[in-house]
Amino acid sequence: MKTLPAIAAAALLAGCVSFGSKPPPSLLVLDSSAAVTVGDTQSSATSPTIAVATPLASQEIAVQRVPVRSSDTSIAYVKDAQWVEPPANLFARLLGDTIAARTGRVVLGGQAAINPGAMLAGNLRNFTIDAATMEAVVTYDASLIRGDTQTVETRRFEARVPVSAIASDSVGPALNQAANQVATQVADWVGR
């Protein structure tokens, strides 16, 4: 008889307890505008290889939320806008797809156990919305080692795309477009 009140209390509490925030209605992803055709075979016997490492990212953009820079010293996050995984992971795959499609290189993961030939690494500096200019901003500081040389080339790439509103349905497409522009610039640099 004493267990009945305890079970009733536990049932009432179960309706009140929440383990995490409510997920948004949908999650954001990046979609490559350049990709290798399904069924195409790439071989290191006929094409150079490159390893593409997942870029480093500050804590501001290492999360799955979409940051908005309202000033040089403050950020907020777009309500109900969330990436399916951290943007650096999504951007690394987008870079790999774009480099493979535009250069014909065989793209290996950044942790490849074989000699990659060339190595691309970098730092994702911005993957944000700039509230002052109403733009999606993607900035990538790339480091490239070409082939067997130990010479490192560095270059900064950036794209800015207008965003109509700081809302979950408009920031994703703008950041996707900016990320594709940067990936194209990087692929063209790698391919030269």
TrEMBL record:
It comes from the Bacteria. The keyword Transferase does not apply. Pfam families: ABC_trans_aux. Coiled coil: none annotated. Keywords: Signal. PROSITE patterns: PROKAR_LIPOPROTEIN. Residues 36-187 form the ABC-type transport auxiliary lipoprotein component domain. Residues 1-20 form the signal peptide. This is Membrane integrity-associated transporter subunit PqiC. It comes from Stakelama flava.
